[in-house]
Structures are given as C-alpha cells and as structure tokens.
C-alpha cells in the first residue's frame, strides 16, 4: 500500500512540470486587438491559457466618464452592498475559519467618502458583490459599458452568467481561489495585480476544511467573527501566496506563479479553474464578465487531479 501511495505521489508531483512544459507560458502574453471568436476559442479558451487583451473596450464611454464625481451624480444616493472586513481579506481563512465579509448596505456616496478619505470608519471597504451587481445595483452605469463581450459570447455560444462591478481600497485583497468561469476582467481605471497558478499546480496548493463564519462590526467598531450556524465546512486555500508558510505547506515551494498587472484599458482573460490572488491600486475600478465554463473532459480531468490530491493529503 505504501509503495502504491508513493508511486501515485510521484505522478502527482511530476505532473505540474509536465503540464507546464506542454502548455503553460512563462508570462501572460498580450494581444493588441480583440481576436475573432474562432481564433480566441482555438488559441486561448480551448488550451486554457490566460492573456491580456488591449483595445478590447476602448469604445466604452466608461473609460472617460467613470470618475468619482460622475458616480456621485448618477448613483451617489443609491444604497449598494459593500463588503467590509477588518483586514481587507474577504472570503479568506482567519483563525481556522472561512470568514466572509459583513455585507453592509450604504449609499454609494458614503462609500465614495470613505474611498476619498473624507470619512474614516473602522474596516476595509470593497464593492465586490459577485452576483451581477453591475446589472442589479448599478443599472444606471450599464449603458457606459456593454452587457456582454460579443466575440466571447459568440466563441462560447452563450451570454455571461454575471457582470460584476469592482471598486475598493488598496488594502482589499482577494485570497487565492479558483472559479468555474471563463473570466474577462476589464480594468477601467487604476490597476490590478494578479498572481496566477494553472489548474495543473493543484497538487502543490493546499486545501483544508473550515467552519464558515461572517464578520460583524460591533457598535464600538471592533469586528466579531460569527459562525454560520448549521453550515457545512467549506474547502478553502489557507496559504497566502505573497508570504507562503513553507513549513506548513512545503509542496507549495514547487508551484510556479505567473504574475501580471492589468492596467486601465486592458482586459485579462482568466481561464476557468486557474487559481488567482488579486490586489489593486486604491480606488481601482473594474468590470468583469463571468461565462460559465464547459463541464467537459478538461473539467473532469481536473476533478480527478483534485480528488487524487485530496486523497493523498488525507492518507
Ligand atoms: O478583483 C478582485 O478583487 C477579484 C476578482 C476575482 O476573484 C474574479 O474575478 O474571479
């Protein structure tokens, strides 16, 4: 039995390097114009490779209209949902729990007061609700962008499941995770730093199961972590790729991250199942399109890799 386990471990730890040699580039390449649907499907979606596309949305009015004073005029009095955390980490592991942000409803103008440092409140604030909040909460802004990206919708034969609006403080960080979406991430102003791992790095990326909980701010401005009663434990990545704990997670030393900065006017194609950790400049404005992935043979193989890695971790 021990020999079989050792053989399986050897296969799994050799696999990421083999995959890298075959199809992962050393850095994220740039395309200078948006591609045709067929070319994009063949060269990027199918091989599951990220790229940064320039001039993909230069016609959007948002690029010159979206300033904080315009937002105040158009949506300043609207109540929107803002994620508030003590540390800037929403949906992340904290003290052996998977802690989600307090979802605070506030007029968008009050949120902008915090961003512009006119008001100081405890916590880190980030508009990051991932339920098509652009359509649901910022419908007045939809006309400044597009409801979908036509060449991507044609390549995939479907419209996006969600179009999200992101705006937050520099201290708001998105912890390492993956999604089952083909993601077109458009930076309107400021910049985002993405740290990426291909799905094939899964054997080196730790997951553990955590009790879900939510931050709640008390009247004295301190944050409590409140368990979600009756909720099942959730698998999450405990590791901070910017400061990895190699004593606890030595395998991560063999993973190889790709880093890229997506600047205003650029669109990142972040393929499904790629692990990503995200940071931003203060007040960075972004819109992204989540297209559901195809649950095809690539997905199935990834599930196998995931289950084998999990089985070995707990053996
Ligand atoms: O911009 C961010 O902070 C996170 C983006 C993200 O995780 C996503 O688009 O899936």
UniProtKB/TrEMBL annotation:
Cellular component aspect of the GO annotation: cytoplasm; nucleus
Cofactor: Fe(2+)
Compartments (UniProt record): Cytoplasm; Nucleus
Keywords, sorted A to Z: Cytoplasm, Disulfide bond, Hydrolase, Iron, Metal-binding, Nucleus, Oxidoreductase
PROSITE patterns assigned: JMJC
Protein name: Bifunctional peptidase and (3S)-lysyl hydroxylase JMJD7
Gene3D superfamilies: Jelly Rolls
Residue ranges of every copy of the JmjC domain listed in the record: 127-306
Species, as recorded: Geotrypetes seraphini (Gaboon caecilian)
Superkingdom to which the source organism belongs: Eukaryota
Role, per record: Bifunctional enzyme that acts both as an endopeptidase and 2-oxoglutarate-dependent monooxygenase. Endopeptidase that cleaves histones N-terminal tails at the carboxyl side of methylated arginine or lysine residues, to generate 'tailless nucleosomes', which may trigger transcription elongation. Preferentially recognizes and cleaves monomethylated and dimethylated arginine residues of histones H2, H3 and H4. After initial cleavage, continues to digest histones tails via its aminopeptidase activity. Additionally, may play a role in protein biosynthesis by modifying the translation machinery.
One Pfam family per UniProt: Cupin_8
Subunit structure comment from the entry: Homodimer; disulfide-linked. Interacts with DRG1 and DRG2.
Chief site of localization: cytoplasm
GO molecular function: hydrolase activity; metal ion binding; peptidyl-lysine 3-dioxygenase activity
EC number: 1.14.11.63
